[in-house]
Every structure is written in structure tokens, then in C-alpha cells.
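Hi Y.,

Following your request, here is the sequence exactly as I used it, all 483 residues.
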Amino acid sequence: MLRRVSMAGQDFAACTVASRRFLAFARVLARSFLEHHPGGRFVVFIPDDPDRERSVGEGIEELRPADIGLEADEFDRMAMSYTVKELSCAMKVFVLEHLVKCGNTTILLDGDLCVYGDLSPLAELARLHGLVFTPHCVTPHPTPDRYPPMAARAPRMRNAVGPDQMAILSGTYNTGVMAADRAAQPFLEWWRARVARYCLLEPDRGLFQEQGWTTLAPTLFDCHVLRESGWNVNGFDLHDADVTWQTGQPELRGAPVRCFHYITFDPTRPERLSTDRYLAAVFPRPDERPGAMRLCSDYSERILDAGHEEAQGDVSPFDVLSGGIRVDPVMRAAYAEAILEHEAGRGPAPPNPLRSGDAEGWLRWLDEPAEGPTGPAPVSRYLVGLHTRERWVYESFNDVPGRDAGAYLDWLPGAVDRGDLDIPPRWLPPAPPPRVDAAIAALEERCAELDERIAYYTGTLSWRLTAPLRRAAAALRGLLRSA
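Below is the corresponding structure, written out as C-alpha cells. Let me know if you'd prefer a different format.
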């Protein structure tokens, strides 16, 4: 067990990153920290509030990109390449490094977390080891066959996916609670270089935003893993125990709950540990964990009282440009690819509407044909961005731009009609004319000729005069078949 130290004379900082839509969570986190660390320093970094239009509250320090020495052009590149959520995750690394460089032992906390105890022992470990991580859970889970099958797989036990596999895909450690000191600077520089361009949620290729990279930390850098119960309690950590209240304060496995991490928790649905159906399938059922649900109920009230509904209605300036132009993930993928090509010396820097203010010019850039192998048809940068972002699209049309470009463009309108894709009309190619096989066309022409002849004969006088004879012959044939 860790030695408890006095909170007096606190000599560490705690921080979080919260976009405008999640400031209610940041308020609750900051207040809960200050409740247990009176006079302490808590920093909230708001990445998408350049004009300082929003505030967290009194006694809470606020930072924006310009305050941490982040070069403006680089931040704007990241803000156009990433969704606001991805950007927020990437900024966690930059803020942590900034505070550490300023001489602070710093605890990094996720916004969807509440503090219930003294965190100074975590800061003490960071001073001793330089870098401290907490895992998703500290006791083993059952084998995968105890859990449901993976989504988009046949519903069979062989396709089961449990918390162990989820941790492998998302990163061994949960960066919702970690700490760093000056000795962690080499790791922080390494981490920052990766999240600057690859803070993406693509587990199938080893990317889980900022968190997945930390799996490599113990093999490359000195660090400490805090495996004591109570430091980063979440749904994964409740599989074999519930939160108890024997001392009047929340405990787990006899240890004080210092932080509870409300991963994918919706404060408007406090009766559920998670609103994510995949996590809900591996977390314990709420009726099995009444102690944890007591925390959820209290946390829900705190979040709603902190202005959750109003904050959720906020719009990030990085999502909507001048003229009401909405930025979608495909636009971001096209822009991010162009940035990487430019930084590799293979093309000019793409225009950035956050810097220039020219949103229409940026759209025209997305309209332009992408450079690449000559194909049967030009493909816009936007549609190449779609091809880059969606793996299943690439698997269907490998060479775009290139020999598959024509087939790709012909296929897109039908894919939109079927609901497989959502493409703004500006970039949707026209539907191709119906293709008719030459043999089928010849048969159709012959049928048309035969129809004309039949119409001619049935319209003649002789056809009408002989009609009674044809009917009598048909009746006679019927009698002969039945005899």
C-alpha cells in the first residue's frame, strides 16, 4: 500500500482537456479535485475556444493553445486534421508536457472522471519514477468465452471479445489517470511526435488515439505502473468487486476509491454504467453493482447541475467554418493526407481555412482532381479522402486515382442511394447511364420487330375472319388431350 502524505503545501498540479461541449464534465472534475486538495492547482485546457468565449469557473486555471507555446500554424493543422475529440486527446500530451517543462509534477486526468480522495501519493510516485501509469483494471478477467461475440462477426463463441482483448486493442494503460515529472521528458517528446499526426481511433491498425501509444512506454522508457485498487476505477475494474461504503467513503477491494472513471457514461441515463453497447456487454450489469450505481447517480446530478445540457448544445468553431460550412471527417482525411505528403516533400501545403478564413477556397481545393496515376476519370481530393478513410471502399477499388477510378465514380451514386455512404451533393458524381450488353440490345431489337409483325397480322381482315376457326381448333385439341 502507498504511504499517505499530507495535502498541506501541495506541490503538484492536476490538469485535464475539455472541449466546449464537455465543459460541464471539466467543472465537476475540477471541483471534486479542489474539494480534496484545498488551495491546489487545477488546470483546464480548452482546445476549441480561441476567442475565450467560455469559462470553467472561479479558482480553476484555464489555458488555450496560445498559452502553452504551441505554434499557431501547427495547431491549426491539427485542428483541421482531427475531429474535436481527436484533437482533445492529442492536446492532453501537449498540456502535460508544457506543465512538466514549467517545473510541475503533474497529474493528468480525463474529463469524465471524479475525484474522491487524496491524489498526492500519485504525485509522489511521479517524483520518484518520472512517469506513472494506471491500468484499466488490476485483477484478471475471465477468458473470452465468457463474453459476447465481436460486432460484425458471426455470433459464435470463437468470435468472443472480452475486456482483455479490448485492453490489447485500446492500450494496456488508461491515460485517464497518469502522472509525470521532469524525468519523463524523453517519453513526452516521443509521445507528442506520434499524437501530432496519428491520434486516431482506428484500433484495427493499432491506433487508439493518444492512449494506445503508451503500451510501448515500459519497453522504451523508465516508468512505474500503479496496480493498487482505487486509483482509476471504471467498468472494467468492477468485474469481481463492487464499490462499498463501510467507512462512509467509497472503497473497492478494501482500498479507498480515489478516482472513478465514468467511461462512456451518459448523465441523462444514470441507471446505466455505459451507453456504449460494446462496453455495456462486458461491464457488470447495473443491478449487480449497486455501490457503483450509487456513485453514478450522484455523478449524474453533479454533471447536470454543472450545465451539461447547455454545453452539449455548443458548436465548436473547428466544426463549422465561415458561411456555415460544416467540416466532415472525409474533409479532414483529405487535408491530413495532403499535410503528410507536404511534410514528406511530395507536394505543396494544402490551404487551411482556419488560417486564411477562406472557406470557399478550401472547398475549391477539395474539388480539384487529386494527383496520382493517370486513370480513366479524374477523382476529386474529397473523394480520394473518402477512399483513404474507408477501408472497405479501398478494398473494393484499390487503384484510385488510377485504373479503378472510373468504376469507383460509377459506383458512388448507387452506394449513396442504398445508404451505404453519405456524400454531400457537391462531390457526388452523376449516376452513369444504364449499360446494356450488345447481345441483349440485339435481342431487344429483334423482339421489337416481331412485336410489330404480330401487331400487323392481328390487325388484318383475314385474322379476324379466321378467329372462330382457330377457337374451334383449340377446343378440339383440348378434347383430344383429355380423351
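The two ends are 103 Å apart (CA to CA).

Thanks again,
Q.
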